[in-house]
Amino acid sequence: MYLKFYSSKSYLTAMKKTCKSAMLNRIWQASRRAVNLEHSPPHVFACSQWQNGTKPATFYLIYRWIVFLTVLCVGISSFACQRLPRLYDGPKVELNYFKWFIYFTNWGYLLIIVQAGLAIAVVHRYRAQKTFNIPCEDEEIPMSRRQRTPLLCRTYWLAHTVATDLAFVITLIYWTLVHDPRIHDINTLNLLVHGGNSILMLVELMVTAHPVRAAHAVFGAGAGLTYGVFSAFLLVGWRH
């Protein structure tokens, strides 16, 4: 009888361990699915949520080109029109145009340009595609057996996600902590770079059809951490 009780106890212990392992595995799989850049069907990255059909609409292609050319022109203007603030009265400083690349604002705006360019590439890819395979995503299918989302779509999704996060953060930080009305001018370029960025990415969220995952906020946080480390190394280098 003791042996029978011991065997039952061992069986229950083994079952608990098995259930615990299965539960942890499901949690891990769910976390991976939330963070990864896989999505089916992938053609949604080339479409607007306001269109009908699976092929990218012409109006969306036009919209994508307008966005890309606009942000590219603003970015070039931001780089070319660097100057000291009009009310600056400190020591004379010689402008170094390449310092444009060390500012967080410009990192964010470069990402907006990159994601706009990648979006055009995605749209053109799927407009040239004749047929669309639209599988239903089955949550029970292991990730290793799923068809991979094309690299172009994953890269665009990553750039779009990080650009969106950084745009909102940059706008908030600039207008609450950085902007000094005694020094900084409120001109068109300043408004476009520090306010238009967030407005554009908000419009993008309302126009694009691809999903938004809360777990992808880790990518934006990673970009912010990367800039923090970069700034620390830069500061140490300047001091030496």
From TrEMBL:
Assigned GO CC terms: membrane
Key word Lyase present: no
Entry keywords, A to Z: Membrane, Transmembrane, Transmembrane helix
Transmembrane segments: 61-80, 100-123, 155-177, 214-238
InterPro entries assigned: Rost (IPR049352)
Name of the molecule in the record: (African queen) hypothetical protein
Lineage per the UniProt record: Eukaryota, Metazoa, Ecdysozoa, Arthropoda, Hexapoda
